[in-house]
């Protein structure tokens, strides 16, 4: 025991500062007063040293003193001039008994909201909507003129495909919701809004299809989101890490997507989509391991091709995880498995190499990873050249110098390429990471080590749940009906049921007997 | 209930399949060949009979005491003192059996592949992995088994395809030259393995669909029998009655594969696949031991004793078994009697006794 | 956090302890062939053909492979295992049997008995069960030292030759079965060295299969030549590819056929105490060379050819039987097992007298030979049309 009476191995934890909470706002106690001067003073104190907040005094008509407060850059000044200042300045205030009527008739702004407290005003100003303060009433008006520079709708850079829409989400929440709403027109598409983040007050939307989705799932998602108490949410990644079931796992338990069509298809399957303002990446919950292996394009190409590519993906997942380890294990422990002529070639190429197999493998793998990461950060033109081609060239030079053997370079190159086949970057990185412990195990215990590592990973996957749904659903627990989207992609006329976790509610997504054929049109 | 997880009857069957087959597949062909010569393919059929009996007995017991494992209802049937004694005896036996299984697995690996590695490393790494799975609960083990089972079954079929040209189908003749005797004698030893189905007593309480328990249990026995039969046939067609002298005939069969002059000496692949099976087997035994011990000692959760049990099992796998020959001797001379006696007859006795004591089980919940 | 660190620390002990079974490829002496010869004092001499990886890697960069790809080392010991221990002292890398595909017994060794050394091959985990076994005329070690022209090393030569099924093909498993089987007899292909083109290139030649060595109770009792080997292979049902050159009656020239397919059945029977084996064979093939003046497109001509075909096969079988069954009295055809399968009780009664019964087994051959196709041309390729015999 040390002097404080605490056990010596317990570190002195700092007193926890309470995080800025979602609500209530620290300005909750402040109210608007009748005097516009007081309101102005309050706001100016709060926004002191904020040079981008503009306070524009003017007279409504000829006598009513008013101010409009807005953040330049978050709204178009011209709009304020044209639709607010001009009509109000030119209005005759005596014609209207109160602001309500005047606002209805004079203000050429479509979205108007009444504000009662300073906190509301701050919220609206922060969102980019100019706030109108005037003499004589204890309220203010927020004008929906928020408009800022935003990125155009572009092709999503992280999920490229050959066939399919080329629109991706952007950083603005309204644009994203509009893209979803454009695709699903039914009012059953519900979008519930909430604000998370003490300082950032980031808007988060939980979208789901009422009637398809399991309501408990929606409740659970909302509960978890409400539980988040944090200073700020800058990206959906923050939210992902704070609401997932197993934070210790390297595997993602929510799917992140940049494509509206992926989000919509998830909605139609009964999943919940979480949109976050400020990032184009939306979150989808719940998700299974196999759902992470589906690319949007799978559903637009013909099903035979898609099935073949899907199998290729599974194969290359295995290769990406296991190839270096298998190589090390076989040439170090189980040389009898190699065909004789191949073994002889390998032995010949390894004659000059000074390192043992495991060290050589680690060397090449780490170099390759470094090149890959460097390639991501570099500008586009140099980046592509550096990553793959650079690796091979360096590899060739290393082989010539006698540092590594040629088979090793090939193994590393194939592993790298295999890793790119995984459609989701998050899963790809998990696999990249897990490759290394298995390599160590392979170098120590040979194939036994590889198997132990593989079993450990599979057992871990078996313990994972994503919002209550077992991560490996479809294979274990075994549900043959799910195989139509896991093992192979059955044609659209055969995909009659939704994934099982919406089972009881709304099982069928198609009318039966949809298979096409030349004589079908003649059916009565 | 200590275990909150639930599995389906199908998953239970899938779980039990590698549990029995993993070690049986290794040594059963040569053991049966020693007694049955070329009738060795009939032996699994006779041996499986006791498997069916065991499944039915355990299922009947379970129906009388739903949602309770054998440790719990043995207290009801035999009275508190005798019940606890029986439970303790059973748990000690299971620790021993688990340790033996681990030892056999490790001996196979070290004997054939990793000759220089100290056996304690092989044993402890596997037990650590199984502890990880056991702590996850019966659901995790069942899911892992479902994920692995195809990789366990498919290679057997693949072996048939690759070795088909080397088969000499004549070797099956003469069929039953000396009557049923030799195949029955050959069945004496494998039936010990089938009695391991008593593990169902620890799994049945967690089924979601209890009525199907019996059906899938029986199907599982049938699948095991079929597998042993096929593997016996494979080694018979390949090696003839020489099988009796080989220690691990299926591995030798895998070594014999030579496909397109390229795929040769694939025994390491056999080892890799077999490790999967051994993992499931050890996990199930380990789980039964942990759960049973926790129930015996009236603990609230079995998770804390998983690791200590692991240490105990490691130790047990060294005590009193100096060499592989002794282990084989146990398999051949002791277990064929120990198995049916403790794992089939004792539950049968329990079942009969439970008819005699109807008053105890009604209305009692634990 | 502390728990994770502690776990990691303990797991790293695993790696610090050392990778016990780790062997780098370059620490292995890859054995491609082994020869076991008899040495004085009841010892054996084990010679191994070790592959030199450096020769290949150097040869890749430069133009010609000047050096040898393999080297041969030998050691004497009381048994194979003993000799290996002594051999290891002479080789700086660990001896690795996993790729040894060829084991050759020297003639003296074969005559002394191979059962003791067979035990090593079957018991040790490394040698592969599919390795081929041979007996060599004279000392076996000289086969390993040869430098063949076509293949990389001599072991590969005899392995490839064996794969062609010109002579017998016997793997370790099959040999083990023969030695432990009911017939107590075995047969291995017999190899010899081809004479070199000239004296200067003494070692630049290759081995070849010249016949079969016959064993009884693990000891070599005799050898048979190539023609008789063919007959033996017929009786064992192992015939795959061969060429029959037959001479027809009253016709000048020979006809050669390449059989495509053979179907052989063995029917044992015991009648009135007389043990009998009927060999039913059906084979069909194509004509490859017609040195006669017969018209091969004529079915009647073909019948003559088929008859000659059949006669040739019967002759070979007769030859094989004469040598093996009557002279050497070794049941390398495994009639014993065939009889056991059909007549288990009688076999059990007669088990101990098989040595006397076997030479007296009457072998009846029932062979049907068919010529299916005449090749690419119908008339003889070398003679003008008038001389072709139509009937």
Unreliable parts of chain C: 61-66
| Number of domain modules of chain C | 2
- Provide mean pLDDT of chain C, rounded: 82
- Rg of chain C to the nearest angstrom? 26 Å
Radius of gyration of chain A: 30 Å
Query: Which class of secondary structure composition applies to the elements of chain A?
Result: alpha+beta
Largest sheet of chain C: 9 strands, mixed
Helix coverage percent of residues of chain C? 25-40%
Average pLDDT number of chain A: 82
Fraction of residues in β-strands of chain A: 5-15%
Estimate nothing, just give the exact number of structural domains of chain A.
Answer: 3
Number of E-state strands of chain A = 12
Work out the number of β strands of chain C: 13
Shape category of chain A: elongated
Intertermini distance of chain A: 88 Å
How does this model look, in words?
The complex is a heterotrimer of chains A (524), B (366) and C (391). Chain A is an alpha+beta fold and 524 residues long. Chain A contains 16 helices and twelve strands. Chain B has helices at 9-36, 43-64, 70-78, 80-112, 119-136, 138-163, 181-187, 191-194, 200-203, 212-239, 249-256, 267-296, 306-316, 324-356, 358-361, and strands spanning 258-259, 263-264. In chain B, strands 1-2 form a two-stranded antiparallel sheet. Chain B is globular. The N and C termini of chain B lie close together (8 Å). Residues 360-366 of chain B have low confidence and may be disordered. Chain C has 391 residues and is α/β, with parallel strands linked by helices. In chain C, strand 11 (254-271) and strand 12 (274-290) form a beta hairpin. The termini of chain C are far apart. The chains are: A alpha+beta (524), B mainly alpha (366), C alpha/beta (391). Chain B: Keywords: Germination, Membrane, Transmembrane, Transmembrane helix, Transport. Chain B: InterPro entries: Spore_GerAB. Chain B: It is a multi-pass membrane protein.
Give a brief rundown of this model.
Chain A: Keywords: Membrane, Transmembrane, Transmembrane helix. The complex is a heterotrimer of chains A (524), B (366) and C (391). By secondary structure, chain A is of the alpha+beta class.
Task: Please specify the SSE layout and strand pairing.
The complex is a heterotrimer of chains A (about 525), B (about 375) and C (about 400).
Chain A: H1 36-46, E1 53-60, E2 64-71, H2 77-90, H3 99-106, E3 112-115, H4 118-126, E4 131-134, E5 140-143, H5 173-183, E6 189-196, E7 202-209, H6 215-226, H7 236-243, E8 255-257, H8 260-268, E9 272-276, E10 282-285, H9 303-332, H10 340-349, H11 357-377, H12 380-401, H13 406-420, H14 425-445, H15 447-463, E11 465-466, E12 469-470, H16 483-486
Antiparallel strand pairs in A: 1-2, 2-4, 3-5, 4-5, 6-7, 7-9, 8-10, 9-10, 11-12
Chain B: H1 9-36, H2 43-64, H3 70-78, H4 80-112, H5 119-136, H6 138-163, H7 181-187, H8 191-194, H9 200-203, H10 212-239, H11 249-256, E1 258-259, E2 263-264, H12 267-296, H13 306-316, H14 324-356, H15 358-361
Antiparallel strand pairs in B: 1-2
Chain C: H1 2-17, E1 28-39, E2 43-51, H2 53-61, E3 70-77, H3 80-88, E4 94-96, E5 102-106, H4 107-112, H5 115-123, E6 132-136, H6 141-144, H7 154-163, H8 172-180, E7 185-193, E8 207-216, E9 219-224, H9 226-236, E10 244-247, E11 254-271, E12 274-290, H10 299-328, H11 335-342, H12 344-350, H13 354-357, E13 362-373
Parallel strand pairs in C: 1-4, 1-5, 5-6, 6-7, 12-13
Antiparallel strand pairs in C: 1-2, 2-3, 7-8, 8-9, 10-11, 11-12
Helix pairs in contact in C: 5-8, 9-10, 11-12
